[in-house]
Design brief:
Strand content: 5-15%
Structural class: alpha/beta
Low-confidence stretches: 1-10
Order of helices and strands: HEHHEHEHEHEHEHEHEHHHEHEEEH
CATH topology of the largest domain: Aspartate Aminotransferase, domain 2
CATH architecture of the largest domain: 3-Layer(aba) Sandwich
Number of helices: 14
Largest sheet: 7 strands, mixed
Number of strands: 12
CATH class of the largest domain: Alpha Beta
Number of domains: 2
Distance between the termini: 64 Å
Mean pLDDT: 92
Strand order of the largest sheet: 2-8-7-6-5-3-4
Length: 406
């Protein structure tokens, strides 16, 4: 028998199968229908299909020139080339506080109530580590954005899904949460305008959510990437408009949607100072801050001309209208959403409970890629999400291809 200290010598070119022990928290992260869709797209592409990818919510609109100019000018500034600690984010945090107060009318302290993030997903995934003890519950939307669940699993928390039903305007029913779950709940995550259902929530909904979380001493996190992407002529409602004293609330904003900066990976958290400090402590043990040159681009975005934001809104409104008209021509009824860059399509028979099968068959047969509703949660089964990330002519072509499968 080989002693424990004996080195293991492996002859070059041989393969040894090591099965390494991984943490149990990895188990819920194994299944991912979006990875399945990526493989299906690659297979269809290899078979000669021309792919029209409407499965990812990545905007195809360019970043405004004044933003990229600010980033470009920073490259030759050697002061931007080192690590960036919290104090190095001050100018960004001040720009965020000014932008937020001007938009939503809520005063913000940039020193204690704003935190830079490397994309808002960093914040939503790390927040459970600061709030949940093993076994605590998080109340999550079903369907909802997948990383919300991932962060809870990594914190060894439990998930109670709050089903979002069409008959309830895709809003959660807090009264349906069992008392024994509420007693163990520490976090609720909401996101309106909502990905994937496109639903919106007015101030009354947020006031009820804040009062509920105050009553049960639950942290209320709002994932808010679509703050500007509304078609009503005004921005969506911020949770801090309902919780002006920031008693239980924290909000996450991304530069990806409003300003097209998805690849630059920049966002922020804003809200309750205790939660911001806790998230800052988590962040300090995981990473540094985003490159200061990108921060300068974000400052230019927030403080500069906002005509590109309006162009973004107008573009996605036009795409929404064109896509809905094309679907209606094929007798596929879908309401016009008031926000987001998506359509949430109810599948007809015989695909009504087979959203993954529909999407896999669709990309194989037509080259059109959509996101299966069940990938966002069990309550999403029976739907598919279409991202309006191509020009109108391409969307029309994609819909014409889609209906051949119905």
């Amino acid at each position: 028998m080989m002693a424990r200290d004996t080195p293991l010598h492996i002859r070059y070119g041989t393969t040894v199968d090591f099965t390494l022990p991984l943490a149990q928290r990895m188990q819920p992260l194994q299944a991912n229908v979006f990875a399945d869709m990526d493989r299906a797209k690659a297979k269809a592409r290899a078979a000669g299909q021309t792919i029209i990818d409407l499965s990812l919510g990545s905007s195809d609109l360019p970043v405004a020139p004044h933003i990229t100019q600010a980033i470009g000018e920073a490259l030759s500034d050697t002061s931007t080339h080192g690590y960036c600690l919290f104090s190095g984010t001050q100018a960004f945090r001040e720009a965020v506080a000014q932008w937020y107060t001007a938009k939503f009318g809520v005063p913000v302290d940039p020193e204690t109530e704003v935190l830079l993030l490397i994309g808002s997903q960093e914040g939503t995934a790390h927040l459970p580590l600061a709030i949940l003890n093993p076994g605590d519950y998080a109340l999550l939307m079903d369907p909802g954005y997948p990383s919300h669940a991932g962060g809870v699993y990594l914190a060894n928390g439990n998930i109670y899904p709050m089903p979002l039903r069409e008959e309830n305007q895709f809003l959660p029913r807090f009264e349906d949460i069992p008392p024994e779950i509420l007693a163990q709940s520490r976090l609720m995550v909401l996101s309106y305008p909502h990905n994937p259902t496109t639903a919106t929530a007015d101030l009354d909904v947020w006031q009820r959510a804040v009062a509920f979380c105050q009553q049960h001493r639950i942290v209320l996190a709002h994932d808010f990437p679509y703050a500007d992407l509304t078609f009503t002529g005004k921005p969506a409602v911020s949770v801090l408009q309902a919780d002006r004293d920031k008693t239980v609330s924290i909000e996450f904003f991304s530069m990806s949607k409003s300003y097209g900066m998805g690849g630059f990976r920049l966002g922020y958290a804003i809200g309750n100072a205790q939660l911001i400090q806790a998230l800052r402590q988590i962040k300090a043990n995981v990473d540094f801050n985003q490159y200061p040159g990108i921060q300068r681009g974000a400052i230019a975005a927030l403080s500069g001309p906002q005509d590109t934001v309006q162009h973004m809104i107008d573009t996605f409104r036009q795409r929404r209208d064109v896509a809905i008209a094309a679907l209606h021509r094929h007798d596929w009824e879908v309401p016009a959403p008031e926000a987001t860059m998506y359509l949430w399509l109810k599948l007809p028979h015989p695909w009504a409970e087979r959203s993954i099968d529909f999407c896999l068959k669709l990309v194989e047969a037509t080259g059109v890629a959509l996101a299966p509703g069940v990938g966002f949660g069990q309550a999403g089964e029976g739907y598919v999400r279409m991202a309006l990330v191509h020009p109108p002519a391409v969307l029309t072509e994609a819909i014409d291809r889609m209906v051949s499968l119905i």
